[in-house]
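Teaching note: in complex prediction, the entire set of molecules is handled at once rather than each chain in isolation. The prompt given to students was simply: 'Predict the structure of this complex.' The entities are:
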Amino acid sequence: MPQRLLGLPLVLPALAVIAFLFILPLILSAVGAFQVEGAFGWGNFTKAFDLYSKDIVFTVVIITLSTVLIGIASIAIGGYLTLGEHPVAVAILRWLYRWPMFIPFIVVGQILRTFLAKNGMMNNAFINLGLLTPIDAQSFLDWRGIVIAFVWKQTPFVALLVAGAMASVNRDTIEAARNLGASRLRVLIEILVPQVAMTLTVGLILSFVTMMSVLSVPLMINAQTPTMITADIAFRVNSYGDYGVANALGIISLVLASSVAWIYLRASLKERA
Amino acid sequence: MTASVMAASRNPLAALWWVPRGVVFGLMAFFIFGPLFNMLLWTVAEKWYFPYSLPLEYGFGSWAKVFAPRGGAVESLTNSLVVALLTVVVSLALAIPAGYALARLKLPLRGLILLAFLIPQAFPNLTVYVNVARIFYEIGLNGTIPGVVLVHVSHGLVYAVWIATAAFSAIDVELEQAARNIGAGAMRTFLDVTLPLAAPGLMASAIFVFLESLDEFTGSYFVGAPDVNMLPLLLYTAGAGGNYQIASITALLLLVPSILFMLIVERFLKADVLSRVGH
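The expected output is the structure of the full assembly:
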């Protein structure tokens, strides 16, 4: 066997798992999306848009808003970790921000459901502090709850990547700008963020795709309409055995996710050119 | 520390900065630990209803209920652990040869192969699991432990392969060459030199895969339920039924390994391995 082919049999079993358990079902779902009672057609997509166009818009808005908030929060955290001048404050933040990272989505859904409810701990704490009257207390278990859950869970991951990238930015430039009188906020926005833009984008795209496929958070925090596409897919399959519309919705979410990835690819190609 | 104390003594106003810092950190801590503390309260709440902001009675009654023979937790916990361990074994059995080949041997299209393992993480996977469940149903794998393990392996493989590749490429090639020079065969060198040196990295990838499997909900929901009960499914059904005590205890069981891992991950995942992940 030629030397460069020696490695292939070692890699093939692992690749076969991906091919049979992921790529094949992905192709099946694309085929199934266009199959209406044995014939090919757009029927599933018309039905999906008729029934769920509101949910599709809702999903895009929720995930876009969450992505923006995650981006802002992780820039703020990474920026403070890099530019913060008080070592104790930096250490406190470094210890604090990571906690939600490894908490599973299903647990996030459960604990935020009890925390954000109308009589949940958040409202209770505000009422006991006198910041809120019991009559004004409202439940956050709607679109806001989903956004809060996504930001809560995904920010540490993106912040970790961004802080790592910021730490490797050349300190001399930062010191020079500071010595010339630039404020820390200005250094963050005009020097640090542009230099870590690529890492930030990668982290945000990974988060975007993750949020596109999370089923447990919408099911647990907001299962009424309008809800997210993932909850609709589960409902179509479990209640009607309707794989056609479920697959069409799956393809729609796939197109949404890949369009984001495409924007990234174009940006990175432009940067290299 | 000393520098900051000096700065503070130079400028007494600097201490005032702790007011905004305290407010921001306090709010962050409230939003991060509040939900977790709320969950802990639920696990020991015997009686807790509106409008009381704290439980009226505390006790471990729900724990007894959850771990009673018919409570379902013991079965779910066992299933979850068995599936997670099998997922680790299968993933590592696939990832160790693959990682070694990707790190050490000349492979055509190496970059593409590495990228292929990322596919299950980079596409919304819900629709894929729906179709996997259909395929498994036809071949009798749906609702079985091997079926769930296979789904978890496809999802966890990216950690296993990427970290294993990084762990193998962080090892000094000269150590292997030295073993070969004094007469050890390729297999012997791999088992006695390469594998022990890569062990911490492989351990880290095993933990990642274990947690990924333990916490996985969507795949278990479509492929496992209702025949194979797992902890995340128990959490979901208990929560959907409004039984917050049982849901919170299950959540705690899922949380402990994740938090433990966060505290020890840096011991296994050294910077030299970490910097090579994905390369």
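Point out the following to students. Chain A has one domain: 53-272. Chain A touches chain B through 81 residues (CB under 8 Å).
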